[in-house]
């Protein structure tokens, strides 16, 4: 999903403001040149969008250069010109002979391009923990630019991304509209005898169809709808086995619009009479979710949000180890999380308006669990969720 | 998609044989311990399957140890026990406090585990150019194990994967059955006024539903169905704009079964009267595809396959830069290619029975292109395709 002629996803001024904020952080970090390899960061700074992150590609941001440079595979230049706001002479492609070759690596081409621009003696920031920047790429770059100084600037752009613009919020709200339909369709599909793959197929269709006004995009995680013993294994995907009666199903779903996400999780029970302890868990969890949402407002810390939930379940005699949420928005597979702020003990990030989180609350017993999540933005005085969907245990009797 | 109780995807003996072949290559490369971080390689050696590759995880194969070790996030141990053939005491999880933390990195936990097993002074092979192994992970490991020697063993397991077993071929044939349905549904959907997202939504649904006998899995690339000027930008995804009359559409689709892929590409034209030069391109390309398929057999080199095509189009007055195919099979996003053998000049890989390729032939003019692909296995005397679908320009008049 990307801009069409005449309807850019964002104004050039917005990209420029993102680049300016990035450059301020580059100055603070003491670097001259930033090599942006995270596909979400590449998109954020220029609009570039394509399923091309399986080969080395990057945006170069130099303090001494007003416009970024895109470098990628030669055949992807057309996509870069179609989606990024950059001038055509700022999109540079390496020949196809560099692709997955035993003899040469795209990063030596990249180093040559840096040298041409006089960037080979600079302090260069790298995203050392981003998904599509490999150790081999890193070593090739370091070897090819012996006079440069390299620094880890992982998450530098991610931290710029943490506060969303009004237009970004609009896309997340649109993702919310789609997410409501996705969850509704998923719960509709659940019945004993229906194969997991058939239910997930409808989820995918609903994600991509979107609404009559706007279509949907692929999500950074695949849909997950585990049942039975698999609910205790969080990242297993579907099978072609049928759903069975008297089982709980955890629905971890999402929708995406222009690469902006709205994840949403709910739990359903197949059968007329859910076990009383599942019903009790669902009540405690939903009560905790409501309480925690009520507590979110600008000025409080991420760890304070988590404390609200922690205290609530402690009163019910439970505790939970993992974090209960994370900053998210624009992203690509394999993760919609931004890897910046987390709702967990020790995270001192101060909430500000238009920060956006996925808060996922879950309680697991030996044989089943209940989970319920909301995607939300911090507002001036509290928070609001992107999707409007009932918070409860769904009973498909 | 993964094994259910009582129906493993592969016999333990098959995993064992894959591990044995890997160990032979480790001996040849002079390493004692292999750190396998590529999710497809992790699956290949143990059966492990989950959407958990967004956090550090790995399989350790040691020459002095009969059984592999799985290390990943604590919450994914249940998934590892559900999908991998390993004994429970060989699945080791790091605490959630390591996940995306500014203070500590999962690789220091991994180094401790290696030290416990006496592997900290060994020659350790790493997959230096695999997608989910980052420079930060690499540096943490090197720093934490100062007495170890590190070597790049990228693609070591991928080269073991290049020849498929009979059971792997069965899954690729099943993917072929689904791919036929996917392509049929995609072409059915194409009509002027239909939004791209609505056509892609049906493609997704068909991919995942599979057949009445077996379901489908998510594919390592998203479906691509570009039209108009976007056909010259290969990796752009869909929009919510409608398809228009008198436009060509390139359909680059696939199906997946148990993580084994069957990609397939075709081209359609919306309108009764396709331009004569598109018709001519389609005839040249299909003729070239047929010729090249006829030429594939054990014993010839990958570059010789490409030569058949190259000579064919030279006779028609054309040339094409990029490779025309690559080894593929088991994989995860972002790429179903195995990064080993390519059908391109200079690739001296000798074809053997049960090597599997995606061969994609395309010709592009200024404003449109024609492409047609087949997924195939090399047989004892030639080759056979996984999907049976007409090779031609599809005219939706």
Walk me through this protein's architecture:
The structure is a homodimer of 397-residue chains. With 397 residues, chain A is α/β, with parallel strands linked by helices. Helices cover 33% and strands 21% of the residues of chain A. Chain A is built from 10 helices and 14 strands. The first copy, chain A, has helices spanning 12-29, 39-46, 77-83, 106-116, 135-144, 156-161, 166-189, 196-209, 276-295, 302-315; strands spanning 33-36, 58-62, 69-73, 91-94, 123-126, 149-152, 247-257, 260-270, 325-328, 337-342, 356-364, 369-378, 383-385, 393-396. A 6-stranded mixed sheet of chain A has the order 4-3-2-1-5-6. A 5-stranded antiparallel sheet of chain A has the order 10-9-11-12-13. A 3-stranded mixed sheet of chain A has the order 7-8-14. In chain A, a hairpin with a 6-residue loop joins strand 2 and strand 3 (69-73). In chain A, helix 9 (276-295) packs antiparallel against helix 10. The longest helix of chain A has 24 residues, at 166-189. Chain A is globular, with a radius of gyration of 23 Å. The first copy, chain A, starts with 11 loop residues before the first helix and ends with a strand. The model of chain A is unreliable at 1-6 (pLDDT under 50). Chains A and B meet through helix 3, helix 5, helix 8 and strand 10 of A and helix 3, helix 5, helix 8 and strand 10 of B.
Short description:
2 copies of one chain form a homodimer. Chain A has helices spanning 12-29, 39-46, 77-83, 106-116, 135-144, 156-161, 166-189, 196-209, 276-295, 302-315, and strands at residues 33-36, 58-62, 69-73, 91-94, 123-126, 149-152, 247-257, 260-270, 325-328, 337-342, 356-364, 369-378, 383-385, 393-396.
